[in-house]
Amino acid sequence: MISLRWRLTLWHLGLMIVSLVIFSIVSYEVLSISLREEIDRTLVERANHVADAIAVVPNRPIEGITADRTDEFRSPGVYLQITNASGKVVSHSYNLGTQELPLNLTNNGQLPNNLNPYTTISISGQSVRLFHQSLVRDGAIIGAVQVGQSFASLEATLSRLRMIYMGGILIVIVLGFVGGWVLASMGLRPVANVTRAASDIVRAEDLFARVKYSGPQDEIGQLAKTFNEMLDRLQALFEGQRRFLAEAAHELRTPLAAMIGNIDLLARFHEDQERRTEAIAALRRTGKHVSRLLDDLLLLAQADAGWRLQLEPMWFDDLFMEVYEASRSSWGNNQVELIACEPSYILGDPDRLRQVLLNLIDNAIKFSPPHSPVALALRCQNNRVLVQISDQGSGISTQSMERLFQPFSRGNAPSTLPGAGLGLVIARWIVREHKGDLRIESQVGKGTTASIDLPEQIAPEGYGALR
Q1: How far is CA 402 from CA 243, 398, 406, 409, 425, in A?
Q2: CB 142 within 8 A of CB 135
Q3: What architecture does CATH give domain 4-156?
Q4: Angle at Cα 255 formed by Cα 254 and Cα 258, nearest 5°?
Q5: Contacts with 146 (C-beta within 8 Å, 6 or more apart), sequence order
Q6: 438 and 389 in contact (C-beta within 8 Å)?
Q7: Strand pairing partners for 261?
Q8: Alpha helix segments (H runs only) across 205-272
């Protein structure tokens, strides 16, 4: 596979060659056309000079006036020929020898009124540009003057120009290759340094190391910055995973130790019915706790793997009231106030939304003093379904708020309260799966409010009558 340095060099060289070839072709054609036009102008000037010389002596016949005038226009590669009205050559330059320049006559052997001014012919194997001009006296054509010039000097000039262009292209190829290689090497040197540093980090398996880049903040600087940001995220993910595994092991170790202790009690006091009953009840409670913990861990693993909830149309206020009625008996002495419960139609997963509501209500009760009110409200505003669950508990400190949605974070909760610190993490994931948002607002000593914001759907016409 061709390296990037080679590709940049070849692209640079190819662009220079194409540009130079196009420039050479265009300039060559422009110069060629310009030189040919210059030859045509020179031929016209020479023909006019001859015609003016003949017009100086108007009373002398053309046969007698031109014989002594043609040699003064003779020059290398230039041909001159003068004919009378019948097309007979009356004078020509010596370099023509016995040849005659071609001239188109009419059917009766006379010069036409309109001669074709330019034509290209061959004389002695050389291309010659020929110009024809009629000689007029007193309104009548008395003859014609023909002036020609060889293209030999033009072809020689163009040939030298082609050689210069070819030599220039070869020089540009060499210089372009060397220059392209040097520029590509200089441009890719920072990339090579970043790549080398990244490879060293990968080989060392050191997520704490970073790419050191001190150059300008251009594309290479942005690359190094992005790579370091990726390492920051990988390090955070790695540390979070390690902390998650350690805390999960800790959470499982405590109930498993309790279960082993209760099993030992059963083995030791198997004949004591009271102790046996207590041990079995403790085993049942611990088993349920471990089962819930494992269910939560499995759900978090599914969330990380990209598992999606199956949403269906539902009346959310029905579920809200169901959770309120079903859970009221377990709220102890807390006075629960149902502030509002407006009809709301959404797309949701009833089981998972029930889990979210139960978790938030359970948290509000756990962190509230006895007999303190817990307020529940369900409202619809601007096509949004808003749920608020507020308590007047001790509140959450700023430091605990920063880790509130991290796995196994229990905020200010004492160790005697049940829970593993996974409820809010799972609740936020469930709410986000519903295209919503979960927010926690708290003031120390004043209480906490959990807010759920979900998108409202338009209920089908007549659907509400079937509730």
Answers
A1: 16, 7, 9, 10, 13
A2: yes
A3: 2-Layer Sandwich (3.30)
A4: 90
A5: 47, 79, 80, 81, 82, 83, 101, 103, 130, 131, 132, 133
A6: no
A7: none
A8: 219-268
CA distances from 454 to 320, 355, 380 (A): 13, 15, 10
C-alpha dist (Å) from residue 390 to 92, 131, 332, 355, 443: 120, 107, 17, 17, 12
**Ordered DSSP codes for 117-162:** -EEEEEETTEEEEEEEEEEEETTEEEEEEEEEEESHHHHHHHHHHH
Q: Report pTM.
A: 0.51
Q: pLDDT per residue over 308-356, tens digit each?
A: 888 999 999 999 998 888 767 666 556 678 888 899 999 999 988 998 9
Look at domain 312-466 and name its CATH class.
Answer: alpha beta
Q: Calculate ∠ Cα 280-285-289, nearest 5°.
A: 145
Which residue is it, tokens 């000079």? 49
DSSP code at position 330: G
Q: What is the pLDDT of residues 382-438, one digit of tens each?
A: 999 999 999 888 888 877 777 777 766 655 554 445 555 677 888 898 999 999 999
Query: Do 90 and 66 meet the contact criterion of CB atoms below 8 Å apart?
Result: yes
Query: Distance of CA 359 to CAs 63, 95, 389, 419, 420, Å?
Result: 126, 115, 11, 10, 12
Domain boundaries, the chain: 4-156, 219-304, 312-466
Low pLDDT (below 70) residues in the chain: 1, 55-75, 105-116, 204, 244, 246-252, 254, 265, 269-271, 327, 329-335, 407-421, 461-467
Thinking of the domain 219-304, which architecture would CATH place it in? Orthogonal Bundle (1.10)
Which is nearest to 92 in space by CA: 130, 57, 56? 130
* Terminal-to-terminal C-alpha distance of the chain: 68
Contact status, residue 426 vs residue 299, Cβ threshold 8 Å: yes
Task: Determine contact, residues 363/412, Cβ cutoff 8 Å.
Answer: no
